[in-house]
Amino acid sequence: MKVLKKILIILFVLLLVSGTVVIIIGYSNYMGLIREESLATRMGEISKDEHFVPFEELPKNYVNAVIAVEDHRFYEHGAIDIIGIGRALYTNLKNFELQEGGSTITQQVAKNVILGQDQTLIRKISEIFAAFDLENNYSKEEIFAFYVNSAYFGNGYYGIYDASMGYYKKEPKDLNLDEASMLAGVPNAPSVYAPTVNLDLAKQRQRHVLDKMVEYGYITQAEANMIV
């Protein structure tokens, strides 16, 4: 019994030390990137783009669709969402597959603009530090705008303006519920959900977006049912 206790203590210490090392490396990685190009400079490059669409010019249905499907507690949590992480972990373990992620919209901005798409633990830790920095320096509306203006929508379209013009030949402010809910679902997996790749899968993803909008009270079931 004493031997087992010692082993458990050693394992705990090793886990604690390794975890601390990973956090330190992740933080150093993020700070190194920010020293190369500051957070303000990176965000400024996005907002100065001639096709940058500010939050107030985004249609309400599109904003609601993105929040419903990507981060429905966006206005309630900070840089990370502990509840969302716990829910995603439970769902993935229950179904024995990676069905949900726990990233917030703020974390996705950090990934899109600062850190890139590498799926490593160090990058994930760096992403969390970047998300805290974003939340400390920008409003929720600014962060949301950074997200939709930096997201990839497939077919070579980066940002909601290019996606809206490319897929529907109209500016984002003119998107209707059908179009808004379709585009809201694409960035999750553009190579799969872009309507020009596989319209059936794109429609399935759109239905999921609409279901989430109904679930969180943004639209009625009748409104969702009108979208074929």
Q: Main traits of this protein?
A:
228 residues; mainly alpha; Penicillin binding protein transpeptidase fold; 12 helices; 67% helix
Description:
There is one protein chain. By secondary structure, the protein is mainly alpha-helical. Helix 1 (2-36) packs across helix 6 (121-137), helix 5 (105-115) crosses helix 6 and helix 9 (177-185) crosses helix 11. The chain is built from 12 helices and no strands. The chain is globular. It has a single domain (54-225), classed as Penicillin binding protein transpeptidase fold, CATH 1.10.3810.10.
Quick take:
This protein is mostly helical and 228 residues long. It has helices spanning 2-36, 39-47, 60-70, 82-95, 105-115, 121-137, 140-150, 160-168, 177-185, 190-193, 199-215, 221-225.
CATH-assigned homologous superfamily: Biosynthetic peptidoglycan transglycosylase-like
| Uncertain stretches | none
Q: What is the CATH class designation?
A: Mainly Alpha
What is the β-strand count? 0
Biggest sheet character: none
| CATH fold-level name | Penicillin binding protein transpeptidase fold
Average predicted confidence as pLDDT: 89
Helical proportion, percent range? 55-70%
The count of helical stretches stands at 12
Q: H/E element string? A: HHHHHHHHHHHH
Report the principal-axis shape: globular
**β content, as a range?**
under 5%
Rg from alpha-carbon coordinates = 20 Å
By CATH, the architecture is named Orthogonal Bundle
N-to-C terminal Cα separation, in Å? Answer: 64 Å
Whole-number total of structural domains: 1
Q: Helix/strand/pairing class, anyone?
A: mainly alpha
